[in-house]
Amino acid sequence: MLNFKEIFTAQLASALDRQMSEEVIAALIEIPKNPEHGDLAFPCFTLAKALRKSPAVIAVDIASQIRAPLIEKAEASGPYINVFFSKAAAGKIIMERILKEGKEYGKLTIGAGKTVVLDFSSPNIAKPFSMGHLRSTVIGNALGNLADKCGYQTVRINHLGDWGTQFGKLITAYKKWGNQDRVKENPIQELLSLYIQFHDEVEENPALENEARYWFKELENGNEEAASLWEWFREESLKEFERIYDMLGIKFDSYNGEAFYNNKMEAIIEKLSAKNLLVMSDGAEVVQLPDLDLPPCLIKKSDGATLYATRDLAAAFYRKKKYHFDQSLYIVGQEQSIHFRQVKSVIKTLGYEWADHMAHVPFGLYMKDGKKMSTRKGRVILLEEVLNEAVLLAKQNIEDKNPHLENKKDIAEAVGIGAILFHDLKNDRMNNIEFSLEDMLTFEGETGPYLQYTNARAYSLLRKAEDGPSSENGLSDSHSWEIIKLLYQYPDKLEQAYQHLSPSVLAKYLIDVAQAFNKYYGQVRILEKDTDIKGRLALVKAVTIVLSEGMQTLGMRVPEQM
Ligand code: ARG
């Protein structure tokens, strides 16, 4: 397989008579920003120091020794050696590969035989799906897709917040003031207002608190009425969450939430006490952690109740045993970073080295007009409304641009949702993001619709063309070469995005491809019937492959017409 960097590295290594290792050479090689400085460049400063010669002299000397079939020329430019590959020959190899591999282009084997578990989305039953959950969902799904591309086996887990004392309150409130039909109609909104009503009424009537405690105990003891109410609340909430997942096109392998671990915590507590790690503190049982900046991890409250952390400990052991993960990721807001450090540290303290393979993947907040954005306006859940609004806006934009388009509704959904996904993912994960539907939905600039539209434009060229694409003759012009080089980077970008757990690496790269293609579209008459037309169509086809696959990896849909 063609590998520019390896070819250049090998050439340099032999010209340098092995005075520098291939590893060191490869690490020094740069991709010049300006195409006039070649396809790859090697700076001679490090070498100059070792050889006590001027870098410019060394550059001239080495450049003259570089000779390989795919290298057109190597030239010294000041302290740099710039190398140019033969556009037609190298381009042909790259195009052939992309067209032959098609959808498979970019797939890697670095994860072969390994498993990654991703814990993401994980909203709380009977509570609104927050903007934080939206970010977790979008980022987690993209990371899962990237892991798939890298060849890992992936397991996507929705660790639902489906247990806790709030269910005692909810059962009490429902039995007093609830209405079955209303819950069915609008589960989360209704359950949330029952919960709020409980808190209002408890001010007047503190005895309600005892009742709630009673019902939570009953629930824990397996009381049938309590259990069936709990199950029903869970089911109705889940139905509502699933509507959101459907809109986003996201699926999970498991919905094992906190409740699933009810009967799995005792074993952990036994492990801890067998190693004498449980310490009493104000009546509660805690584990002291070796990390000086971490507070002790609370395992059992004074009334015997277990906690969020106890469940996460049980979940980690369960996942290790069931999936034999090589990596376990928790895509959860940064406000929980202490919690995850504690959980990891407890497992490590117990002596399990695999704790090192658990990673919290945090992210920043959604902001609106400089303030943290929340989906709860008064008592209404807004996320679904936000998604619907994006689709509506997309529909208006599409109608303005292309009134005769068929399937407008479907395409508007792909564009509206894609806009939100892309807007999130193009930003570095840790940054806070300004949430502006108008900005994310424009067809210009660095947006999802811009990518989708560029891709659709490429598809439409392929539909219009009478010829079929062919990579038989390489393109030798520099406009084509700029894009070919970019497409060549796709597998590397997938790998980098996954290694850094940063979908933004891929998102930014796709913008580069789209911009390069639009530039090409403006400079070159793609459908002109000359000898290169089939080659150019091959290039267009390759662009659709990379853009489509790349967008799908981010979780977006890719309309072929817009
Ligand atoms: N339900 C939690 C919340 O909304 C997130 C759970 C994250 N996953 C985990 N294993 N703790 O804050």
UniProtKB/TrEMBL annotation:
<keyword id="KW-0963">Cytoplasm</keyword>
<dbReference type="GO" id="GO:0005737">
    <property type="term" value="C:cytoplasm"/>
</dbReference>
<dbReference type="InterPro" id="IPR009080">
    <property type="entry name" value="tRNAsynth_Ia_anticodon-bd"/>
</dbReference>
<dbReference type="GO" id="GO:0005524">
    <property type="term" value="F:ATP binding"/>
</dbReference>
<keyword id="KW-0067">ATP-binding</keyword>
<dbReference type="InterPro" id="IPR036695">
    <property type="entry name" value="Arg-tRNA-synth_N_sf"/>
</dbReference>
<dbReference type="Pfam" id="PF05746">
    <property type="entry name" value="DALR_1"/>
</dbReference>
<feature type="domain" description="DALR anticodon binding">
    <location>
        <begin position="451"/>
        <end position="562"/>
    </location>
</feature>
<feature type="domain" description="Arginyl tRNA synthetase N-terminal">
    <location>
        <begin position="6"/>
        <end position="85"/>
    </location>
</feature>
<dbReference type="Pfam" id="PF03485">
    <property type="entry name" value="Arg_tRNA_synt_N"/>
</dbReference>
<dbReference type="GO" id="GO:0004814">
    <property type="term" value="F:arginine-tRNA ligase activity"/>
</dbReference>
<protein>
    <recommendedName>
        <fullName>Arginine--tRNA ligase</fullName>
        <ecNumber>6.1.1.19</ecNumber>
    </recommendedName>
</protein>
<dbReference type="InterPro" id="IPR005148">
    <property type="entry name" value="Arg-tRNA-synth_N"/>
</dbReference>
<feature type="short sequence motif" description="'HIGH' region">
    <location>
        <begin position="123"/>
        <end position="133"/>
    </location>
</feature>
<dbReference type="GO" id="GO:0006420">
    <property type="term" value="P:arginyl-tRNA aminoacylation"/>
</dbReference>
<comment type="subunit">
    <text>Monomer.</text>
</comment>
<keyword id="KW-0648">Protein biosynthesis</keyword>
<keyword id="KW-0547">Nucleotide-binding</keyword>
<dbReference type="InterPro" id="IPR008909">
    <property type="entry name" value="DALR_anticod-bd"/>
</dbReference>
<dbReference type="InterPro" id="IPR035684">
    <property type="entry name" value="ArgRS_core"/>
</dbReference>
<comment type="similarity">
    <text>Belongs to the class-I aminoacyl-tRNA synthetase family.</text>
</comment>
<dbReference type="Pfam" id="PF00750">
    <property type="entry name" value="tRNA-synt_1d"/>
</dbReference>
<keyword id="KW-0436">Ligase</keyword>
<keyword id="KW-0030">Aminoacyl-tRNA synthetase</keyword>
<dbReference type="InterPro" id="IPR001278">
    <property type="entry name" value="Arg-tRNA-ligase"/>
</dbReference>
<dbReference type="InterPro" id="IPR014729">
    <property type="entry name" value="Rossmann-like_a/b/a_fold"/>
</dbReference>
